[in-house]
Amino acid sequence: MNPLLENLRLPAAILAARAAQFASRALGRGGGSTMPGVVARRVAPAVLKQLSRRLPRSSVALTGTNGKTTTTRMVGGILRIAGVRAVNNSTGANLVTGVTAALVSDADLSGRPASEIGLFEVDEASVPKVAAEADLKILAVLNLFRDQLDRYGELAYTGKVIASAFGDLPSDGAVVLNADDPLVASLGTQASGSRTVFFGVDEPELDTGTLQHVADSKNCPFCGTALVYDTVYLGHVGIYDCPKCSFGRPEPGYRASGLAMDGPRGTSFRLETPTGSRELKIELPGLYNVYNALAAAAVAGEAGVGLDDIVRGLEEFGGAFGRVERIQAGNREAFLLLIKNPVGFNEILRTFVSSSGGTGEADNVLIAINDNDADGRDVSWLWDVDFEMLAEKGARSEAAPPIMVSGVRAEDMAVRLKYAELPVGSVIPDRAEALRSALEATPPGETLYILPTYTAMLDIRKKLSDLGHTHPFWEER
């Protein structure tokens, strides 16, 4: 492609993308977080390369199965505290078109960026293309769980796809990996061109005692021998060693220890980094959000942010839209907790619903399951979720109302709950109607816990926005 021709096309691409974004929002077709990228790339195919190379501090990308949006927003909060302006695809449009759209919206008509650094969450399958175009300096891999089998298939293949992008990082770049996920940790052997940085948790008291039946990467990724676990945290994530070859859990450079988990109210822990350590508390609940915070700390630290700014950014972070988001709905509260696969669903159930110990704290529950493309068409994963933990004695208060279900696959969800011998309340496929009914059934002053898949979350959140309880998802607040 002729560079001069591409430079001439750039202003037209940016202008066309702005028009597409305006039309998308004006017509109610979404937040304009993807279509502008599609339009810009058609007008100027090299637009992502051109714009990303004008960022003074290059770009950072985060990928993995769970936690991309939350962790990316955590890093964004840390960078703001540090006085670094970042452009990011904060709405979760994580394909190459979404990354392009974010950069286009940040640039003026001449292509000059307003930001210093690019900060992008990237779909696992899109990592090679984004890495080839977006001038990445840091690439973080959070975890790899079985997710949307109709899209990704085997985890080992997904790992190879991600690792194929390591070669596009510069010699002074960094690959940030989860030491406690065996498959992710093993990718470090393929990052020879850049430094490899690991993060992990050291808290033996959180050992679940056994691998869950939904654990995926239970065998050594090099020799195939069953890994021996000293500690199991969630799914296949923990502290492990291979009894046959030299593979084992790498030593984390960024570490969390001394965890004190306070259910929905957050978690305190000690953050240890190469430059020092601090005690802090994040407002997000659950061990999975401790991993998100660790990953954010590692990415920010490797990007040159100081420890004080990292801690302040993590402590001030309040959640990402729809993932872990509290919304005041009149005299009730709606708490949105995105679900997408068995491991994530199990952790939410363990953290919020069963951990209330019969106190009634998480009695009001609405589960909404869709099977649109963005959710994954195959909903057989619902049978791998450990709903039976809710039927255990004391897990929920005896007066807890039946669990309400909604979404395109509401009936499937209801059947799964019945097989777990849990009481099923209203089955209302329409998300807006289900939300209204669930809020009405929630006593004033209490919280409705909403557990939706991705597109169901967008439906429910839009209804909450239409009712004036929150802002549209594409608006930063």
How is this structure best described in words?
The chain has 477 residues and is α/β, with parallel strands linked by helices. It has two domains: 3-316, UDP-N-acetylmuramoyl-L-alanine:D-glutamate ligase (3-Layer(aba) Sandwich); 324-466, Mur ligase, C-terminal domain (Protein-Tyrosine Phosphatase, Chain A, Alpha-Beta Complex). It is built from 15 helices and 17 strands. The protein has helices spanning 3-26, 35-43, 47-52, 68-81, 96-106, 127-133, 155-163, 182-186, 287-302, 307-316, 342-353, 388-391, 410-419, 431-441, 454-466; strands at 59-63, 86-88, 117-121, 136-141, 174-178, 195-202, 228-234, 237-241, 254-261, 267-273, 276-282, 324-329, 332-337, 364-368, 403-406, 424-428, 447-452. The strands form three sheets. Strands 2-3-1-4-5-6-9-10-11 form a nine-stranded mixed sheet, sandwiched between helices. It has a six-stranded mixed sheet with strand order 12-13-17-14-15-16, with helices on both faces. Helix 1 runs antiparallel to helix 2 and helix 9 (287-302) packs antiparallel against helix 10. The chain is globular and about 70 Å long. The two termini are 40 Å apart.
